[in-house]
């Protein structure tokens, strides 16, 4: 069986989802889910499968994955040139299918919390995800039957959340804030400027601008654990 990992930040994101709904003037129920799945899962058979999303079999990150997790049997999909997990002789899963299951499970958690059905989602992805990786997330969401209203970079979501809760501190003087996010598999540093600006329609409005992003795709808790 495939053990599903719990997204850790769901409750907090559910709150942000309400705020996002306000901000983006979307009336539909929103669920914000993170694909930054935690490392502390107990006996997950497919560890860190998200590192394989949207990658060709010859990608160096796939080779790194093989060396880090030799217990997982990966086979190459001859058509797509991507890899799949061989669970048993009969059972294979692509990383997208595994993420689809995780998203579906996350949706059931969000539905329990919201006490209503959820179809629409805003999904956060790491800022460094490329187009193929973003497509893989969209494909996984489709498998889970979720309609993706938007993919949003997780550092942008963090900056947005910070701005919403610190609205009172934002004035006409530009303030720069650095967000530093070291997770289990990667590290991202983002510099954001907050400032109120004059708009024609609504007068002074708070605004955020992402000034710069730096990252290391492999620096994280896992790397430290392995050394
Ligand atoms: C999603 O999860 C529900 C239970 O919450 C299950 O009934 C359904 O079959 C799952 N759908 C998919 C596509 O995995
Ligand atoms: C804006 O707020 C910061 C602190 O939040 C303060 O130091 C600064 O003086 C304020 N600037 C203006 C123009 O009010």
From TrEMBL:
Location in the cell: Endoplasmic reticulum lumen
One GO MF term attached to the UniProt entry: ATP-dependent protein folding chaperone
Keywords noted in UniProt: ATP-binding, Chaperone, Endoplasmic reticulum, Nucleotide-binding, Signal, Stress response
GO CC terms, sorted: endoplasmic reticulum lumen
Signal peptide: 1-25
Any one Pfam family match given in the protein's UniProt record, by short name: HSP70
Protein family (similarity comment): Belongs to the heat shock protein 70 family.
Protein name in UniProt: Hypoxia up-regulated protein 1
Taxonomy of the source species: Eukaryota, Metazoa, Chordata, Craniata, Vertebrata
Gene: Hyou1
């Amino acid at each position: 069986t495939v053990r599903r990992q719990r997204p850790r930040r769901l409750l907090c994101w559910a709150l942000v989802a309400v705020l996002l709904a306000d901000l983006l003037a979307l009336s539909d129920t929103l669920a914000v889910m993170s694909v930054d799945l935690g490392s502390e899962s107990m006996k997950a058979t497919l560890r860190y499968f998200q590192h394989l999303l949207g990658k060709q079999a010859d990608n160096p990150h796939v080779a790194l994955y093989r060396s880090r997790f030799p217990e997982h049997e990966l086979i190459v999909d001859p058509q797509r040139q991507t890899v799949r997990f061989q669970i048993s002789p009969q059972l294979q899963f692509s990383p997208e299918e595994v993420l689809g299951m995780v998203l579906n499970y996350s949706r059931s958690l969000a539905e329990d919390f919201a006490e209503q059905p959820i179809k629409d989602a805003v999904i956060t992805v790491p800022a460094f995800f490329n187009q193929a990786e973003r497509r893989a997330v969209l494909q996984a969401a489709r498998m889970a039957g979720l309609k993706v209203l938007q993919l949003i970079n997780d550092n942008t979501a963090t900056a947005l959340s910070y701005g919403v809760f610190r609205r009172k501190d934002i004035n006409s003087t530009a303030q720069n804030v650095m967000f530093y996010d070291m997770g289990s598999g990667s590290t991202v540093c983002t510099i954001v400027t907050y400032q109120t600006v004059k708009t024609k329609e609504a007068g002074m409005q708070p605004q955020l601008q992402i000034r710069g992003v730096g990252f290391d795709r492999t620096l994280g808790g896992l790397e430290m654990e392995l050394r």
